[in-house]
Design brief:
The protein is α+β, with helices and mostly antiparallel strands. The chain contains three helices and three strands, in the order ααββαβ. The chain has a three-stranded antiparallel beta sheet with strand order 2-1-3, covered by helices on one side.
């Protein structure tokens, strides 16, 4: 049985892991040139299915930016990545879906 301290530690571990996933994914982001030229901005939220080794099993648009060009660019960036850091074993990961925002903002 988990006590409050264990739950807090697991929560902190999960938050720390998610920060590392977000950082890794954000580094792959490329702003499509056509969108830059057209002054298009937007926010895409992706759903990533990640296994216990950090392999990205699936990537799909969870919340569209409303601009297919930006949505496709975000998915392409994650597919190029292939994997993220493996989750800490204490999280008993298995497979989980996590949500990662991509913000395309000019200037």
């Amino acid at each position: 049985e988990l006590d409050d301290v264990d739950v807090i530690n697991l929560d902190a571990l999960f938050r720390g892991y998610m920060m590392s996933v977000h950082q890794r994914v954000r580094r792959t982001k490329k702003y499509p040139r056509a969108a830059v030229r057209a002054g298009i901005e937007g926010r895409v939220e992706l759903a990533l299915l990640i296994d216990a080794t950090g392999k990205i099993l699936e990537c799909r648009v969870h919340k569209s930016s409303g601009v297919p060009l930006l949505d496709r660019a975000a998915v392409k960036a994650v597919n190029r990545l292939g994997n993220v850091p493996a989750p800490p074993s204490q999280l008993s990961w298995g497979r989980r879906t996590v949500y990662v925002p991509f913000v395309y903002k000019l200037g």
